[in-house]
Amino acid sequence: MYNLSNDEIKIAGVVKESIVDGPGIRYTIFTQGCPHHCNGCHNPQTHDFNAGSFVRISKIVEDIQKDPLLKGITISGGEPFMQAKKIATLISNLDRKKLNVMVYSGFEYEYLVKNANDENGYMDLLRSADILIDGKFEIDQKSEKLPFRGSLNQRSIDLNKSLESGNTVLYEF
Fold it and tell me: Looking at the whole model, is its pTM more than 0.85?
């Protein structure tokens, strides 16, 4: 089914069964490299573009397919949109009837749509995922009461409805 053996993504690590990175039991991938450097970031070790390790997309897909308990995958960071095309490729090789996909980004949804092009693959990733948590973490707006978000400025966006309607549609957990 999957034959892109040289296709790799750069990651900081994975959590194979997370219950804190989205609804249900999720496979969470932490991408490596982030341009935002948010003050108070939960994952500062993912900022350095020179750190982390390369992992074959096929290896991650195999790991995900082995676990019958998973309800979804979460792509966190770092900044996933720095590797948007490769992450979209990973998602396209999953059984999407079984798994939903949530992506975190320091970029706002409107920025990603406006600046999408064939080279950066932003739309590829937006079309591949179901939920986007957008916006930089703002320490002065930190809240522990938000589902799967760290600060009040961040939004949960229903990507399917947003792309279909042309308007930003919020997702309710």
Answer: yes
